[in-house]
Write a structure and sequence with these properties.
two-stranded antiparallel sheet, globular, 213 residues, 8-stranded mixed β-sheet, alpha+beta, Protein Transport Mog1p, Chain A
């Protein structure tokens, strides 16, 4: 692909990320039934169905490591994207982006996680994401608690109203008690055919099987 087109697609990607990444504001959703983490989690012990890159992503603290699909490449976050983000990895055809964030811990957020666990963390992350998008995303299904390879995740899915793009996020608390979020999101700004929800979820859970914290 010509260099000028690569730069153009990267610019569009960054603008799109501005609409889907969480802000730092924390607001509880009205009239929502809070799902407690005392629920029995869905237990999965899958292996990745997708060939992963040999070089994994690691946090600076060393408390999380994860692999992404082979052939995907890094996009350098810039100042317009949330400072929580430490890695963005994009599919070769610019149709999917994997976004990894280290969440800032406010007292409100710590209290929610203490009382509700990863379900509460997922709920708050969706709320922040919705505020950042000016209320232009919708929650899909309920917040879910998954245990994958003996690790616990709060998981939620969402759609963007303006283009019906789909995304899925997993949040977790590391062994160092740090909060993280991984999101896989459809990107609809190229003529390439975007993977459907089924394919996105297969990639999403394949990535999660490699995540260790």
């Amino acid at each position: 692909m010509p260099l000028h087109l690569i730069k153009y697609f990267r610019f569009l990607l960054l603008i799109s990320l501005l609409m889907i990444t969480p802000s730092c504001i924390i607001v509880k959703e009205k009239d929502e039934i809070i799902k407690k983490e005392t629920e029995t989690p869905y237990i999965l012990s899958p292996k990745s169905k997708i060939k992963m890159a040999e070089q994994p992503i690691r946090t600076e603290l060393g408390d999380m490591v994860v692999s992404t699909p082979e052939g995907w490449f890094f996009i350098e976050p810039d100042a317009r994207v949330s400072s929580d983000i430490f890695a963005i990895v994009v599919s070769p055809d610019y149709t999917l982006s994997a976004v990894f964030s280290h969440l800032k811990k406010s007292n409100d957020l710590k209290n929610v996680v203490s009382n509700e666990g990863v379900i509460g963390l997922a709920r708050m992350c969706f709320s922040k994401r919705n505020i950042k998008s000016s209320n232009t995303i919708l929650l899909v299904d309920n917040y879910s608690h998954y245990e994958i390879n003996r690790q616990h995740f709060g998981i939620y899915a969402f759609t963007k109203i303006n283009d019906n793009s789909f995304g899925k996020s997993a949040v977790f608390v590391s062994a160092l008690n740090e909060y993280y979020e991984f999101s896989l999101v459809q990107m609809n700004f190229t003529p390439n055919l975007t993977p459907d929800r089924t394919e996105l979820e297969e990639i999403f859970y394949s990535i999660l099987t490699t995540l260790k914290y």
